[in-house]
Amino acid sequence: MGKRIMERLVKGLKDWSLFEKMWLSIFTFVTIYLYFSWEDTILGLIASLTGMLCVVLVAKGKISNYYPGTVNVILYAYIAYEQKYYGEVMLNLLYFLPMQFIGFYLWKNNKVQRTAAEKVKIEMMSNNARILWTVVSCAGIFGYGLILKRMGGNLPFVDATSTVLSIIAMVLMAKRYVEQWILWIIVDVVSVIMWFVVLAKGGNDISILIMWTAYLVNAIYGQINWMKLHQEQMRVCYE
Predict the structure, then answer these.
(1) Could you read off the pLDDT of 217-239 as tens digits, one per residue?
(2) Can you tell me the distance from the alpha carbon of 65 to that of 103, in angstroms, rounded to the nearest whole number?
């Protein structure tokens, strides 16, 4: 049994680049080390590790990202609730959780048929669509920020930025658009700020801060890799 598991693991890592292996290994090591050093919670550790595995699989265009992603969404919502980031809680439980199943279905039905790997077809938006989503994003952030402020939430407009852009980015992700990564980069920067504030106030959620930092690095890589994958898929289509 142990030999079979190792064989599957090695086979699954064959199409991983050196950067992907190093990225996941380094941030996993740092997360586990800081978990013990800062006496973080076990839920924070699991949320961080499953989240990092999820995003690197997304960057690779792998449908399997939705498995660890589901675990991460549930645990992260609980941790965010403890810190009164209500926008994050509602985002994860009411939106991200059902979107895990919707996204899995959409990706499963839009695979690259010519490859053995479970990779998804990648699309790019039109200029008009980009303008439309930019306007919707700005309006959504302002409106939701006012709501969170009245609720007494922590950093309401920062929280709103993370929440609204995450909602839109998740839609673009389900529709397999390259442009999702620009929004994820913004979301990750904002989220790093949010959880740094938690630590500055005496919190111990260091694993979550490392998770968002890892997300940021991965989002930059995801933008580069999806552009590359899109060009490769377009080239194959015209051959």
Answers:
(1) 989 999 999 999 888 887 766 65
(2) 10
